[in-house]
What we know:
Nucleotidyltransferase, domain 5, 36% strand, alpha+beta, RNase_H-like
Amino acid sequence: MAIKWRKPGHDFLKLNSDGTSRGNSGPGSDGGITRDENGMLIAAYAFNLGEVEVETDSLLLVQWITYTSKPPGAFGMISNILRG
């Protein structure tokens, strides 16, 4: 399954962001990039957050983390690598 970035509508900006932590709670970081309708870089950031507590409303993500559901395709391979 190919994942492709989709540009925002005319006169809009798109912010893509992601975060990570080592454990819950644990040290975390966050980053993001903002682009215009042509894909041109407007701004980008990345920084360490210190100790974080992770909370999500994504049922799939919770199931993957708690091993009650298996992630598909590449997500499963990445998950297996990260878990050792």
